[in-house]
Amino acid sequence: FEPSALGTRQHWDAAYERELQTFQDIGDAGEIWFGEESMVRIIRWLERHEVPLDSSVLDIGTGNGVLLVELAKSGYMNLTGIDYSPSAIQLSEKVREKEGMSNIKLKVEDFLSPSAELSGFDICIDKGTFDAVSLNPDNAAGKRQQYVSSLRRVLKPGGFFLITSCNWTKEELLNEFREGFEILEELPTPKFCFGGRIGNSVTALVFQRK
């Protein structure tokens, strides 16, 4: 991928500062990455596989925290969201307060160098964070390796990793996460047709930690 400002912390700090101001002004939590259907897809998978409601869940790059709120509304109790942007965590705290979801834990954390207490999760969820890491202008390939290493460290053996991406195909993601993970399922995503060929603009996969 071409390096992009979308892969820098400065971009996301500025974006979430704007969204935080908007939330304070009019109560709008801002954009939901990949739309509401992406959250429904994740929650349906968890419910279909009868993932216990007390399972520990980590939202990697939580942004405005809306996914965690929806998980809490679905009955999940052990929820943590991290983001390297302090403005994103401020925004997600405001959203959490508005929704009355005091049990959601939120922390400023860089997933590429996670703190020691960030470990032992049953479920890790990523909607677009790995995409952003892949666009970093400073050694994106090395940062992708750091990401996979961090994921191995924070996710329990046997735990599930649900990733939604608009930059990577299924085959590419299988290659990126081949060290320590095996594919369980590809989740259905909207299809598009162009030039007589049908494809997906979004890839959603479930991996299991070996």
From TrEMBL:
GO terms for cellular component: cytoplasm. Residues 56-185 form the Methyltransferase domain. Keywords: Cytoplasm, Methyltransferase, Nucleus, S-adenosyl-L-methionine, Transferase. GO terms for molecular function: protein-lysine N-methyltransferase activity. It catalyses: L-lysyl-[protein] + 3 S-adenosyl-L-methionine = N(6),N(6),N(6)-trimethyl-L-lysyl-[protein] + 3 S-adenosyl-L-homocysteine + 3 H(+). One of its GO terms (biological process) is methylation. SUPFAM superfamilies: S-adenosyl-L-methionine-dependent methyltransferases. Pfam families: Methyltransf_31. It comes from the Eukaryota. PANTHER family: EEF1A LYSINE METHYLTRANSFERASE 2, PROTEIN-LYSINE N-METHYLTRANSFERASE METTL10. This is EFMT2 methyltransferase. The gene is Eef1akmt2.
